[in-house]
Design goal:
The protein is α/β, with parallel strands linked by helices. The protein is 33% helix and 24% strand. The protein folds into 2 domains: 6-111 and 269-284, Nucleotidyltransferase, domain 5 (2-Layer Sandwich), CATH 3.30.420.40; 123-264, 2-Layer Sandwich (Nucleotidyltransferase, domain 5), CATH 3.30.420. The strands form 3 sheets. Strands 3-2-1-4-8 form a 5-stranded mixed sheet, with helices on both faces. Strand 12, helix 7 (242-250) and strand 13 form a beta-alpha-beta unit. It starts with 5 loop residues before the first strand and ends with a helix. The protein binds 2-acetamido-2-deoxy-6-O-phosphono-alpha-D-mannopyranose. 2-acetamido-2-deoxy-6-O-phosphono-alpha-D-mannopyranose is lined by residues 13-14, 67-69, 77-79, 82-83, 107-109, 131, 133-137, 153, 155-156, 168. Residues 13-14, 67-69, 77-79, 82-83, 107-109, 131, 133-137, 153, 155-156, 168 line the site of 2-acetamido-2-deoxy-6-O-phosphono-alpha-D-mannopyranose. It comes from Ensifer canadensis.
Length: 285
């Protein structure tokens, strides 16, 4: 009997674009590229589809998870520091034309939340997923239902009425790299973690400051939603030592108020696995 076609999954974040062929939640092949961060999203997507042209004919539907908000198939940024996307970019139309297949699109962190809830560290319990990445995204699953729209956009919480600074502007990978620039020119967030690991005090302070803010966010999420689990992913969230720093910052909390923190088990595949499952179910958010 002929094998069922796979789903083409795309996870387009502020730093990288990950494409994968996924069948029955199994990632068969992946291709990763840096997100260009300049020019037009149609050009980024064209470059990605050129790079995966060898997969043509192996998929019959597409799931696209993107940083930013997707309304009626149109993609917009909430924070242009994370990725500068023109307002209401026609995402599903453009990907539909490039792939020739039906397309389901959603926010990247919500898709990853669904992946972790269904097949990873969420264990199919009420959960909140947090990605600490270029920005800070999130997804909420309650009673088996993934909340769509703006729900889970914790990185957009405002800290300050006067400046409109967002939480992610003081926590995320983008912030970590910016803070490091006076110590090491053009340092990436990854290089800051390496410097902290090598014992550089300035780098350790930046990483700790970010982890403490994330711990505070987890405390507040627990009070708002009381999830069974908070699952943390993203390049920063899963960087060595980050979760331990969050746990340390939560150390003194009374047990009833303490969030149950878990590392994302699907790692960087959470988004592609989650959006593949949503596309297979044709589950619009
Ligand atoms: C921002 C926001 C979210 C996204 C989150 C993580 C934009 C462009 N993105 O809060 O929609 O989920 O970043 O995105 O406004 P990532 O690119 O860091 O994975």
């Amino acid at each position: 009997m002929a094998q069922a076609q796979a789903t083409l999954s795309i996870d387009l974040g502020g730093t990288k674009m990950l494409a994968a062929l996924v069948r029955d939640r199994t990632v068969l092949e992946t291709h990763k590229m840096a997100t260009p961060r300049g020019g037009d999203p149609a050009e980024w997507l064209q470059a990605l589809f050129d790079a995966i042209a060898m997969w043509n004919g192996r998929y019959d539907k597409v799931g696209v998870a993107v940083t930013g908000i997707v309304d009626d198939g149109h993609w917009s940024a909430l924070n242009r520091n994370t990725l500068d996307i023109p307002d209401r970019f026609p995402l599903t139309d453009v990907v539909g034309a490039l792939s020739g297949s039906p397309v389901l699109a959603a926010n990247d962190a919500q898709a990853a939340a669904w992946g972790e809830f269904s097949f990873g560290a969420g264990r199919r319990e009420d959960m909140v997923f947090l990605t600490v990445s270029t920005g800070i995204g999130g997804g909420i699953v309650v009673n088996g239902r993934l909340l769509g729209g703006l729900a889970g956009h914790f990185g957009q919480f405002r800290l300050d009425e006067a400046t409109h600074h967002t939480l992610e502007d003081q926590v995320s990978g983008h912030w970590i790299a910016g803070e490091a620039s006076v110590h090491q020119k053009d340092a990436t967030a990854r290089e800051v973690f390496a410097a902290a690991d090598a014992g550089q005090e300035w780098a350790r302070r930046i990483v700790e400051a970010s982890a403490r803010q994330t711990a505070l966010l987890c405390r507040n999420i627990q009070l708002a939603l009381d999830p069974k689990r908070i699952v943390i992913g993203g390049g920063i969230g899963l960087a060595p030592g980050y979760l331990t720093s969050i746990e340390r910052a939560l150390g003194d909390l009374p047990p009833r108020l303490k969030p149950s923190i878990h590392a994302a088990e699907l790692g960087e595949n959470a988004g592609v696995v989650g959006i593949a499952d949503l596309a297979e179910r044709q589950q619009q958010l």
